[in-house]
Amino acid sequence: MKKNLLIIAGVLCATIVLASGQFEKAMGKNVPAIFSAESPEALQDVINQLNRIGEAEGNRWEPYYYTAFGYIRMSFMYENAEDKDKYLDLGMKAVEKGETINPNDSELEAMRGYIHMMKLTVDPATRGMTYSGLAFTSFQKAIKLNPDNPRAHYLMGRMQYGTAQFMGGGTEDACGSIFKALALFDKEGEKDNPFAPSWGKESTQEAIQEFCEKGE
To answer: How far apart are the first and last CA of the chain?
Structure first.
């Protein structure tokens, strides 16, 4: 009986290791692809793969985080407001799925704010009052949840810059947030979770050159 139990335990351990290896292999392929896909068709294929990974695992939030990011990228590929809204709404659903697994997470909250910010840009004149408040609230919450999250500070800076441009104000607050983000990126080291978000440093450097070093 004891021998049989040991055999069963060994099989279960092997199954867990295999499943973990499959998850890592699938994520290792699809996470880079969500950033590099260059057409809506290619991007949708990666999103579909990530959704399948999320559904198969059931307890990992990362596939839904990158699905949301993919839908934001998808919205950039269309000019029509209806299409943009459609993909941004799908991105929000992905964030909400991630939050059921990993609630009160700084990265997911920052992604929520990113989607609000992109919804605003679809029609700033009519959506400014609603979506600016939602975006700022999410970025503030993301920073409160993790003050060292560089993506939250970077996105906050982008939001502050856009607001200043629209309202005719200065860019001091925006540049402060963006420089803060860069400092945090420089401190961001190796993570225990290889699929935790790490994007944004290059975009932050570009924002500094575009918004801050030129004094715009």
So the answer is: 75
Residue 113 in this model has a pLDDT that exceeds 80: yes
- The H helix count followed by the E strand count for the chain is 9, 0
C-alpha to C-alpha distance for 112 and 97, rounded to whole angstroms? 12
pTM, entire model? 0.88
Domain that holds residue 88: 26-103
Long-range contacts of 20-26 (CB under 8 A, 24+ apart): 23/53, 23/56, 23/57, 23/60, 24/194, 26/53
* Last residue in a domain, options 88, 103, 118: 103
Q: Report yes or no on 12 lying in a domain.
A: no
The yes-or-no verdict on residue 4 having pLDDT over 50 is: no
pLDDT at residue 12 greater than cutoff 60: no
Q: How far apart are CA 97 and CA 189, in angstroms?
A: 27
Contacts of 129 (CB under 8 A, 6+ apart): none
Secondary structure (H, E, C), 100-131: HHCCCCHHHHHHHHHHHHHHHHHCHHHHHHHH
Which token pair is 64? 């839904």
State the pLDDT confidence band at 8, using cuts at 50, 70 and 90: very low
* pLDDT computed for residue 170 by the predictor: 86
